[in-house]
Specification:
The complex is a heterodimer of chains A (87) and B (162).
Chain A: H1 2-18, H2 26-36, E1 47-53, E2 59-64, E3 70-75, E4 81-85
Antiparallel strand pairs in A: 1-2, 2-3, 3-4
Chain B: H1 7-11, H2 13-37, H3 52-69, H4 74-83, H5 89-111, H6 118-135, H7 140-148, H8 150-158
């Protein structure tokens, strides 16, 4: 019985993989934000993502682009987004 | 009389068949979508089949006809944009920041027309709309609707009070 459930689960998983519409990953989302702000990234995803949030609700994200450049994305509590290169 | 070793195969025969069908379906679906999106020359397509480019041309033609009769609800478009999976959350926030900046520019223009020209505002609006449309590559219906509502969006932007 447990094998049957396992197989059905795997089949359902494969159907999900086959669906054409896929949500954007966080790494892609960050890379798109960097590119939208006019900075070179050298690819559509980023790596080494780190996040922090202060007491006021402002969020800081740091990530490295495929071209080796590291960026800091600052999101204020009211939703304003700014990007700053770190190196 | 069946040997003892064959019993498990018979027992798990149908789940294995489902698994096999699943394995065959996934590459076929992936190959189909690849063929659909990355066929620039159209050399391998059969006669009568439409490529994405052909469909886009046909859609653009019908869109021009529909645009005259269809009116768009701004709230509905914004809601659909918010819910779209084609754009990530952070990217949506970035676009929202740009839109807020543009609205501030329009307000400043209405208070003091010498600060920005209408051409500057229109250029900035077109740039922002182009970004949105480029990002909505995976949501062609919404992209088409926003593209068709371009003039309505511009008009509503110009109605913003200073």
């Amino acid at each position: 019985m447990k094998y049957t459930i396992l197989f059905v689960g795997m089949f359902a998983g494969m159907l999900c993989l086959a669906s054409p519409a896929q949500a954007v990953t966080q790494a892609e989302d960050i890379a798109t934000t960097i590119i939208l702000r006019g900075y070179a990234c050298g690819g559509r995803t980023v790596s080494n993502i780190s996040e922090s949030q202060d007491a006021k609700g402002n969020k800081t994200i740091r990530a490295t682009c495929p071209n080796g450049k590291r960026y800091q994305i600052h999101v204020t509590a009211d939703g304003r987004v700014t990007v700053r290169p770190l190196n | 009389m069946m040997p003892k070793g064959e019993a498990p195969n018979r027992r798990y025969g149908w789940p294995l068949a489902i698994l096999l069908v699943g394995l065959l379906t996934v590459p076929a679906t992936a190959a189909w979508s690849d063929c659909d999106s990355t066929d620039p020359s159209g050399t391998t397509r059969q006669q009568g089949q439409m490529t994405k480019t052909d469909k886009a041309v046909v859609d653009a033609g019908t869109a021009a006809v529909e645009a005259e009769s269809k009116s768009f609800s701004m709230d509905e478009l914004i809601e659909r944009l918010k819910k779209s999976d084609a754009i990530g959350f952070l990217t949506k926030l970035t676009l929202r920041s740009d839109a807020v900046d543009l609205v501030d520019m329009v307000k400043a223009y209405k208070r003091d027309a010498s600060r920005y020209s209408l051409a500057d505002l229109h250029a900035r609006f077109n740039g922002l709309l182009l970004k949105v449309l480029a990002l909505l590559n995976d949501d062609p219906k919404l992209s088409k609707d926003i593209s068709m509502a371009r003039e309505d969006i511009w008009k509503s932007l110009m109605e913003v009070k200073a």
